[in-house]
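yo, UDP-N-acetylglucosamine 4-epimerase is done. seq:
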Amino acid sequence: MVGSSVVVNYERENESMKQEKNWLKHGWADPCTADAVPILGGSLIPAVRVTSTIIDMTGEQKGTVLVTGGAGYIGSHTVVSLLEAGYDVVALDNFTNSVNSSKNESVALKRVEEITNKKVHFYRCDLLDKDAVERIFTAHRIDSVIHFAALKAVGESMTNPLLYYKNNMIGMINLLEVMDSLGIYKMVFSSSCTVYGEPERLPITEENPTGNVTNVYGRTKYFIEEMLKDAVRADPKWNIIALRYFNPVGAHKSGRIGEDPTKQFTNLMPYISQVAIGKKDVLTIFGNDYDTPDGTGVRDYVHVMDLASGHVAALNKLDKEHLGLKMYNLGTGKGISVMELIQTFERVNKVKIPYVIQERRAGDISSMYANATLAERELGWKAVHSVDEMCEDFWRWQTMNPNGYKTEQANGHH
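structure:
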């Protein structure tokens, strides 16, 4: 054990030295000491003196986390949990799946700052712009990365597959290459239960086979997981957790942040809520002939704040242990049908949801729910929010924000 401890400390020292050398190599200033640093357009801004570690109320040291896709639905909620856990957060987003203000800021992350009373360092940036990504890394002493940024609509992925392959896979390659060049090897990757395809057995454990994926979005997640396996095999310094989570729903209990879809292909609960509030006339249910108790698709709906705490738990694990690459399911372990979710939403929020049935969508599957005992045992994580809470919290977000984040100052255009 003593020997392995020395190796870990030596690697960390080398990684720190590697970061210092890269600041010098690229001619970028260390933001902890310089008066100004170059930013995305090449102009100089006053340096933010960012330390590599901060100390939370328990005295435990926490690092600086880069959150890609940080302005999005799951990303913004995770930033809340990271800040509350004592991490410093740098976030980037290109606003494909999120809303920007007239000042080109993230509306969601501005509200996160209000909720937590803590600062988020935000950059508008696309991962396909590798030079811009590198400039962000070199402006901060990043210790680890949580990677959410991706196109994520199943339906759209089937009609525009090349866009999904380019954005999701090349974006990840750029990110990994920048991290490697700067000696940063800790990552939590936002994977998906879609990597399992149509499951042969339920509930789904991490040992279920992957790869027989039914849609392009899921294939990008599967291919990235395979790419990470190869990267770790080639260079054991990588320390990565891939979280295969199931169907995120709900919103922060404050009602200040939630899911605000920017595209026509979207998730079930926002559609339910839009019908309930009168923005849409009727909910469309795709398929009622699945091999499930009521004929509608069954999913493992998990509260977004449970997912957020799962990412913090994963990061804590990486801070304490070298895993190489490890996969974990994040779910409740309970399957809920589309019809059951509609009925729960109606009961909890005292609303009516008119609906129509249409044919199944390409790429959809019948039933998926998780066995998440591995995450409970090894990460100390377990979903604690009920389906009733998911419906109640999302409805609070919707009624407090009937137009989502979009206002005269924030129109969602990008």
